Amino acid sequence: MNVIETTISKDYVSDWGLNEGIREIMQNALDANDKGFTGRLHYIKDKKKLIIYNRGVILNKASLLLGSTSKNNDINQRGNYGEGYKVGSLALCRINKQVTIYNGNETWIPYIDTHFEIDTPVLKFDILSGNPYEGRLTFEIKNINQEEWLELKKQFIPLCNLKEDSYHKTPQGKVLLEDSFKGKIYSGGIFVSHNKELDFGYDFKPSVLSLNRDRNMVDSFNLQWNTSKIWAYISANIEGKLYDVTSMLKANCPDVKYMDQFSDYTITGKLVEKFFEENSKKSYPVTTNEESEKVRSMGYRPIYSSVSYSDNLRKKLGTIEDLERKIELDWKLFKKITAIDDANIQWVFKVLHKIDHNFKFEMKIVKFAVDTTNSVHEKDKKNLIINCLLLKDRYKILREAIKFYSSIEKKSSSNIWMQLYKDTVEGIEIKEEE
Q1: Distance CA 159, CA 52 (A)
Q2: Is pLDDT larger for residue 206 or for residue 230?
Q3: For residue 286, which of 275, 382, 277 has the smallest C-alpha distance?
Q4: I need a labelling partner for 184 at 20 to 30 A (CA). Which of 29, 191, 192, 203 fits?
Q5: CB of 6 closer than 8 Å to CB of 123
């Protein structure tokens, strides 16, 4: 018998227990299985023993060095920190779960004992001759009771016996549809963490998520970015699932927060079509009161929406600025101005001059293609383009002029109205339209 002494202290990863120990062994077994080395897992209830094996795999003794790995830079593998089975064995030995590794023509038995030269407990391996499981790398873990086994099964998707209608399969991984998986995150079939905000569970391919060394944490942005990518794929490729996604977008579900980054125009076209069916052709999604006021002034009906739903719709509809540019191009000058119209316009100029005698602008009276549009202003110019239908009511003209002035000068229109009410302008009666 030979003894191999590692420098892995007994207290290394001291918070690891049964789940983490089995996880490290399982991830190696699953990686090997993906490479064609057929693997299996058995639990023998009456012997309280778990057996994990792969055919055709042999560990060399150099793999007992901390940091030694054959998976460097392989993004499709579950583990890449060079710790794997040895640290998993340490965690199991520490909680009195007896581990035996049948490897090649040898039997390896990990245990914790005092270092030969340093007076501290470390992980050691007894190396014995013989292997009853010829041609297989086999891990036997004893002292696992049935209750522990049932909890372990929940940590590994391959042990959950998923039905085909209980998940959606995508290039990034699976969406787990059963309520029992809600918010649970897996990578390569191995449990990572639980995110209570998510509407569904996910089993990502190992190459998709970036995990920390302990495989128990994933960056929130990285997570939502990839769930959004998955749902964009589902909307485009799985029949009848678009309107499930519509409900998620409306509810501002974190699962689809960044879906607009991946939605193609087929998806957004269908979303817009449904949006118009539920509202009207002259509707537009908004997320704030400021946006609502702006959209209404252009003759559109504002529909309050979640940010993610609005982002997806606007990918097809265009931005509010796009709407403004469209309207700015869709008008013609109006020349039938009466003396009363002209007096109303001059009155408005006089009021604005009292507010700010340095402010200069031009007013164009136009006929918009959309009569409900009150006014717009030309980009990068102090030109107010106002609907001719407002000319008979000087207070309507003033309201648009003050809105224009507050936008140009970055001032609050409410404060301007308050100033007008407070300071009586000689010869000018001021009141805001009700």
Answers
A1: 12
A2: 230
A3: 275
A4: 29
A5: yes
- pTM recorded for the entire structure: 0.72
DSSP code per residue over 8-40: EETTTTTT--HHHHHHHHHHHHHHHHHTT--EE
Rg (CA), the chain: 35
* Phi, psi dihedral angles at 327 (to 5 degrees): -70, -40
**Residue 407 and residue 128: Cα distance in Å, rounded?**
83
Q: How far apart are CA 69 and CA 256, in angstroms?
A: 36
Distance between CA atoms of residues 184 and 176, nearest Å: 9
List residues bridging with 129 in a β-sheet: 106
* CATH code, 331-422: 3.30.2010
What confidence score (pLDDT) does residue 216 get? 65
DSSP state of 193: E
The whole-number pLDDT of residue 68 equals 58
**Higher per-residue pLDDT: 61 or 427:** 61
CA distances 78 to 175, 279, 346, Å, are: 19, 47, 75
Residue whose C-alpha is closest to residue 64's, from 23, 107, 125, 16? 125
pLDDT at 141 over 70: yes
Side by side, the strands of the sheet bearing 362-368 are: 331-333, 362-368, 383-387, 375-377
What residue segments make up the domains of the chain, in order of their start? 2-153, 159-225, 264-328, 331-422
What is the amino acid identity at position 294?
K
The residues that bridge with 212 in the sheet, in sequence order, are none
The Cα-based distances of 16 to 21, 244, 271 in angstroms read 7, 39, 47
Which pair of tokens denotes residue 125? 């391996």
Average pLDDT, the chain: 87
* Rounded-to-integer distance, Cα 319 and Cα 307, Å: 13
d(C-alpha 378, C-alpha 409), whole Å = 15
pLDDT above 90 coverage of the chain, percent: 57
Q: Which class does domain 2-153 fall in?
A: alpha beta
Chain position carrying tokens 């794929």: 233
Distance CA 68, CA 75 (A): 17
